[in-house]
């Protein structure tokens, strides 16, 4: 599928809306609650967020396929485009940039210019959160869960976050394997 | 004019303090309280002793900006208050400078006499916010200051990791309050 | 969590003049501070912080409702694993909503002071800042109208006062079709659960923030037309009712 066509699907898919701040504040509440429950053990918080995202991803993919009407992707590059321009567009109304491909086309980065989950957020000034907590880690789990449902095992993690004082917010996504020995389908 | 600004939680826990001097009329922005060695303690004491009045004003005036609510003559200290809807209290103590005796009419420690210098020939106009804590100009300037602090306070409080009653330690917030003081006071 | 009076702490620091200086940065004599100044968080090279983001930037922006439902659903599922029953779960959701109420309250008032078209008044011509609610009825209108519009894009469906003479402190806010229930299917063993407990917590935060001690609970009251109709029962504390009488006599609106 052409990249511009993918963009158009992302922009034209109509979904029910809700006030963005309700989503932002609710997500903030979740993360703050986890930090409290896990006594600021941020590694555990990251893990739990990833797990929650995984649960979401497994259910979200159905919603995604129904709303967007898209079929199978021909290859991982097309998958990446679909995630950025349709998936993120529909569910978070942002379009991260796909970049930094490895030469074997199995790893790429998503660079987030905007991230509604992190609006209003300042990490705790405890000397650790900025080194240990990935505030938006739920997104990694969402990708993992939803792609697993379409026979792709991937690994995703953040490598930088403006909340930590980095200049960009970047997630690294790697294809581990296609599940059940399925080869990527030739056609959509 | 010297200022002491503090934010108290709804249960009177101090969340933020800063002292500064006027930047108007050639002021250098440095606080010069009349009794420097006890100023820290005195300022807090004076502010806390105005809380009863604040709590009364809180339920008769629905505004956020409650203007000048209290005066403590022994220290020539004037208290102005702003209440956020979520119950945080912004309190600004202002203390006019001791007028140098060379300017004549101002009579040293007699604080209330400062208000009586309106007709005098002191260089700073009596209505200027640098000299007169209760003039309409001062009231308006403090309103602007309070509104600007409020905006930054809301930004602080919106973060999911900020819980009501937590001390505000952000150096950026401090810079913002300092800048608001320089701009309006 | 009330700490010792801060000035006492400050004094003890300044009295301890025999301490080696250099342990801690010396405060400027003219700059009294609450505590040691924090070095602060790292910021990106463009120096952008939360203080650089305009509070109205996300005003009126929208996101997928499904995203909210997924997040909120996970929040409920997660909370469910850490509690022992429905009541406990609703209490937890309520507690999570509470701080949101405080935030939304400040945000609402900020927006109505900073813009000409007030978020709090229906007339767009009024430019004077809104008043903090002093009376119960003003507070409830704030919740029924502006708060509901900020959260759900419309006012709540009804606002009523208890007719029973025994409970003059009880008020009811009704939502015929609460968004938080529409998309969330309660866990099977908790069919009586009302996820609107989260919203009840938000309401409680707003009331408490304004100085009205309150307990708010969410109750399923389905009708044929509105199967997920929810009534938020707002019960004001005795101190509020006492004050209400005093303000009434003083003619304060």
Could you please describe the fold and organization of this structure?
The complex is a heterotrimer of chains A (188), B (185) and C (253). Chain A is of the alpha+beta class. Chain A has six helices and five strands, in the order αβαααββααββ. The longest helix of chain A has 27 residues. The mean pLDDT of chain A is 91. Chain B has 185 residues and is α+β, with helices and mostly antiparallel strands. In chain B, strand 1 and strand 2 form a beta hairpin. The N and C termini of chain B lie close together (9 Å). In chain B, 49% of the residues are buried. With 253 residues, chain C is of the alpha+beta class. Chain C is built from seven helices and five strands, in the order αβαααββααββα. The N terminus of chain C is likely disordered. Chains in contact: A-B, A-C, B-C. At the B-C interface, strand 2, helix 1, helix 3 and helix 4 of B face helix 1 and helix 3 of C.
Major beta-sheet overview of chain C: 4 strands, antiparallel
What portion of residues of chain C belong to β-strands?
A: 5-15%
What is the overall number of helices of chain C?
7
Rg of chain C? 23 Å
Quickly give the structural class of chain A: alpha+beta
Q: Poorly predicted ranges of chain A (pLDDT <50, ≥5 residues)?
A: none
Strand order in space, largest sheet of chain A: 2-3-5-4
Shape label of chain C: globular
Strand order of the largest sheet of chain C: 2-3-5-4
Q: What sequence of helices (H) and strands (E) makes up the elements of chain C?
A: HEHHHEEHHEEH
| Largest sheet report of chain A | 4 strands, antiparallel
Largest protein interface? Answer: B-C, 54 and 48 residues
Got a strand count of chain C?
5
The overall strand count of chain A is 5
Tell me the fraction of residues in β-strands of chain A, as a range.
15-25%
Distance from N terminus to C terminus of chain C (CA atoms, Å) equals 34 Å
Give the mean pLDDT of chain A: 91
Radius of gyration of chain A: 16 Å
End-to-end CA span of chain A:
8 Å
Oligomer: heterotrimer
